[in-house]
Design brief:
about 90 residues
């Protein structure tokens, strides 16, 4: 695998997006996201627990063929759990 040159990557990005600014954290709602978010707000479960988290964990476990899956609040939390499980 050859190492990508920064200029190559930059050229690709500019050719793909032109002068259009690509926001770093702009949400894209293309389905039922707003409906589900309002449901969470109305149920008072806007956190890392609740019906949607349980459903996500269950579907993810099925998809990867695992008995369980654990959703975390961020990548750092996920890495921390991995390190603990690895005995680090």
């Amino acid at each position: 695998m050859k190492r990508c040159d920064f200029d190559e990557v930059l050229k690709f990005i500019k050719s793909t997006f032109g002068k259009y600014k690509v926001p770093l954290h702009e949400p894209k709602f293309i389905g039922n996201e707003k409906k589900y978010l309002l449901e969470c707000i109305d149920s008072s479960f806007v956190s890392s627990v609740g019906k949607f988290v349980d459903e996500f964990e269950s579907k993810l476990a099925q998809m990867v063929g695992a008995k369980f899956a654990v959703a975390t609040t961020n990548g750092t939390s996920a890495l921390h759990i991995c390190l603990k499980l690895a005995g680090v």
